[in-house]
Amino acid sequence: MIAGLEGRVAVVTGGAAGIGRAIADKFLESGATVLTADVAGAADILCDVANEPQVEAMISTVIGRYGRLDIAVNNAGILGPFGKLLEQVEEAEWDKAIGVNLKGVFLCMKHELAAMSGQRRGVIINLSSVMGFLAAPKNPAYSAAKHGVLGLTKSAAVQYAGKGIRINAICPGFVETDMGTTIGADNSLSDFPKPFIPMGRKANPVEIAEIAAWLASDSSSYLTGEAIGADGGWRII
Q1: What is the rounded distance in angstroms from the CA atom of residue 70 to the CA atom of residue 72?
Q2: Catalytic position from the list 66, 142, 160, 222
Q3: Domain of residue 36, residue span
Q4: Which among 2, 19, 45, 48 is positioned nearest to 125, based on CA atoms?
Q5: pLDDT digits (tens, 9 = 90+) for 180-206
Q6: Which residues form the signal peptide (predicted)?
Q7: In this structure, what CATH number is given to the domain that contains residue 20?
Q8: Total domain count for the chain?
Q9: 115 and 64 in contact (C-beta within 8 Å)?
Q10: Are 125 and 72 in contact (CB under 8 A)?
């Protein structure tokens, strides 16, 4: 349990499973009120983050029920056209990957920040990736989007720091989720994770949730515009 989340209102996109579900559960355990949003599954709100009317409706639902929004976790994401050379990526594949992974974060932040600005208080946590720092030769669309998430995070953090809103990013490496399983099943990664991760294992989603809970709490009150890598040492080898 993380102290300081009691009574706060949070929304978590991509919250039906994986990292998003783990974050939602951690927030609930710490006393927050949490609404999960997803395109399907056991979420509280159905929302395609690449669709602005649906995003606006999601935030309006939170405000309508609870009168405020204290914490937003923009976690929804897709793998995109994995395993293709750039010249092989179809425009529709590119648009979908960028639409969910980057435009979706932009749209969510746009409406979250509008809600939080009137409160002059709030925390936004964006889920980028280790591929927001590194090249992703098997998925340039995903890497481009996740680099973009870091740019959005830093730029918005500067714009809204004076309004009492903190904005940070978490950049996981491989995590034990459906997406992580898909990547790990690729034949070229048959000996995964030994060549990639000094710790020699994937992260458990709960480990990412612990970071999110800390970022959401007042324990990180002087932290904004940061991108926290959670990759088991991948980037230092």
Answers
A1: 7
A2: 142
A3: 9-175+206-222
A4: 19
A5: 555 555 545 545 555 678 998 899 999
A6: none
A7: 3.40.50.720
A8: 1
A9: no
A10: yes
